[in-house]
Design goal:
This protein has nine helices and no strands. The chain is mostly helical. It comes from Variovorax soli.
């Protein structure tokens, strides 16, 4: 039997009130999953699960995780099919950004709060600093995002709180960027001018750069977490994969969120029920 972790070593929460219902429900599921200890035969069970098609919800916690990931992927594919031919280039870029943003969050699932202030050497950046620098990069100049509220929290300010608090600030700012750009039209160049199309190209280039910014910081965070002695269990790696697929599903809805609220609700209810079941394994 695995030893009960010390309170300081327990995985922190990433769930926060700024998340929308689907993200909040998935975050709660992944947080519960990350607290499961690695069990004997887990990898074999995972392989077996991947090779079979479940018609009902499996009882094994790792099979549940793979099933949830598969349902999210199915949701993303269904939304893609329903929106075929109507997605703008800006929305495609924002989808990639959404995937990178959730991947960053997923990497931190299972990390105890005590590691946030880990400093690998004198004068080196802490995990908290690198994470906040990554989230600060999701902000965009106001000239590109006309609808961002001036009262929105600033992701670049120092947050001494928990991981959940850090991501709550980042969620507000990130959502403001997406909501400010999602309806931007794909403008083309006017003959003999550089108006219109040039701004559209700048927006796309900026969003693509933000995606690379988040991915680059994930590499640095992986290195710091390894230096801090953080061991990612199978449960944590599964939770990370689920969060990346969540990003795909959310990204597929950008620009048409209200249209698919009803489509998401049955999956939200299912994942919530599976979270309660997962709690039995802890």
């Amino acid at each position: 039997m695995a030893a009960t972790p010390r309170t300081a070593d327990r995985p922190c929460r990433i769930t926060n009130d700024a998340m929308k219902p689907l993200a909040h429900t998935v975050a709660r599921f992944c947080g519960t999953l990350a607290r499961l200890p690695d069990g004997d035969g887990s990898k074999a069970q995972l392989v077996a699960c991947r090779r079979s098609a479940f018609q009902v919800m499996p009882s094994d916690p790792y099979e549940q995780a793979v099933h949830v990931r598969r349902r999210l992927a199915h949701l993303a594919a269904g939304i893609d099919e329903a929106r075929a031919g109507t997605i703008t280039n800006t929305q495609r870029s924002l989808r990639q950004l959404q995937h990178a943003y959730r991947s960053l969050q997923g990497l931190m699932i299972g990390v105890p709060d005590r590691l946030l202030n880990f400093e690998p050497g004198s004068g080196r950046c802490t995990i908290r600093h690198v994470l906040q620098r990554a989230l600060a990069g999701t902000a965009m100049p106001a000239c590109f995002v006309q609808h961002i509220s001036s009262t929105a929290p600033c992701a670049c300010r120092s947050c001494p709180g928990t991981l959940s608090a850090i991501f709550e600030i980042g969620e507000h700012v990130y959502r403001a960027v997406v909501e400010g750009l999602r309806d931007a039209p794909d403008l083309s160049f006017e003959p003999g001018t550089t108006r219109g199309g040039s701004l559209s190209l700048i927006i796309h280039a900026r969003v693509d750069r933000l995606s690379r910014h988040l991915l680059d910081h994930q590499v640095e965070l992986r290195r710091l977490l390894k230096s801090a002695g953080h061991r990612r269990t199978l449960s944590m790696r599964l939770a990370h994969r689920i969060f990346m697929v969540l990003g795909d599903a959310e990204g597929a809805m950008i620009g048409a969120e209200s249209r698919f609220e009803g489509t998401c609700q049955p999956l939200i209810d299912l994942i919530a029920a599976r979270t309660d079941e997962l709690a039995r394994y802890r």
